[in-house]
Amino acid sequence: MSAAAGPTRGDARWWHPVAGLDELIGPGPWPLRLLGQDLVLWRSLGGLQAFDDRCPHRGARLSLGRVVDDQLQCAYHGWCFDSAGACRSVPALPGFVPPTGHAVAAWQVATAHGLIWLARDPLQPAPPACEGVPQRRVVCGPYTVETSAPRVVENFLDTSHFAFVHEGWLGDAGHPEVPAYAVDHTADGRPLIPHYRAWQPRASASSDQGAWVDYRYEVLSPYTALLQKQPEGGGVADAYTAFACPLDEDRTRVWFLQYTSDTATPDAELQAFQDSIFGQDRPVLESQRPQRLPISGGELHSAADRLSAAYRRWLQLQVVGFGVC
């Protein structure tokens, strides 16, 4: 699927993170990119609104406009659109009542996890939840990476690269083996690993020694996933989410949110740890060819790739067409 074609139904029905709440600086509107499309975010009295960033009149970017009387006004000819996307006035024709066909395409907006999420026709009423995680939340990123969102998520789900890409951090060259594990599925069919055990020289920013760590992985949506970690014998419990925004077929913006029982380590130190981990992942991710994730064959699998293979099969079942081939 080409970026010019716009999102398929299988992609637009999912919630996608597009920006952090702390990025909304100034009065707006704010330009965004999602699924190969330019979008605009603006704030009405009723809350945040999102439209296609294209005026239906002459195609100018609505993000160049301004908010006037609780409507988004195009900078080119002043056409005004309400929070539902309906055109309410055409200044060149003061007595004209715009018909319904003069509307701009609107997206649904939600906030969750400190991020802003968009969907055109969502399957679920809200973005994915993170159940059973520690209370403290630290937002890491966003990071922009030149590869597809499914490649980013699959890398997050992959454990057999730890001993090589994250040696001395999340993995150990003396323990490259991947133990046998079972892939299960949630009630609605999403892949998960209920239990996976791995040796880590440094499992978290607050850790200074190695430990066996119990993992639990869960795919939350096509471009988001959750990892929960508990060191053997107790210690700091952590959960990490990968929230990937598919900007284009081969370009992704991703946030990693850490939920932790560690109340002592400063946010900046936890963020620096994640910066280092993703800094190790980035060159490998950007080297992969094709940049889109092959879900119809073309790459080899081993028994250590059970979760990756299950993720690819699930993407096929969900008719995901963006960032895959």
Describe what this molecule looks like in 3D.
By secondary structure, the protein is of the alpha+beta class. It has two domains: 117 residues, 3-layer Sandwich (Rieske Iron-sulfur Protein), CATH 2.102.10; 182 residues, Naphthalene 1,2-dioxygenase Alpha Subunit, Chain A, domain 1 (Alpha-Beta Complex). 15% of the residues lie in helices and 34% in strands. The chain is built from five helices and 17 strands. A seven-stranded antiparallel β-sheet has the order 11-17-16-15-14-13-12. Strands 1-10-9-4-3-2 form a six-stranded antiparallel β-sheet, with no helix packed on it. Strand 15 and strand 16 form a beta hairpin. The radius of gyration is 22 Å and the shape is elongated. The N terminus is likely disordered.
The name CATH uses for the topology of the largest domain is Naphthalene 1,2-dioxygenase Alpha Subunit, Chain A, domain 1
Strand content range: 25-35%
Stretches with pLDDT under 50, minimum 5 residues: 1-5
Kindly report the spatial arrangement of strands forming the biggest sheet: 11-17-16-15-14-13-12
Helix content: 10-25%
Instruction: Please state the second-level CATH architecture of the largest domain.
Output: Alpha-Beta Complex
The CATH superfamily of the largest domain is identified as: Naphthalene 1,2-dioxygenase Alpha Subunit, Chain A, domain 1
Number of helical segments? Answer: 5
| Main sheet record | 7 strands, antiparallel
Mean pLDDT, as a whole number? Answer: 92
Shape: elongated
Euclidean distance between termini CA atoms: 8 Å
**The CATH C-level class name of the largest domain:** Alpha Beta
Reading the helices and strands in chain order gives HEEEEEEEEEEEHHEEEEEEHH
Q: Give a count of the beta strands, DSSP E runs of length 2 or more.
A: 17
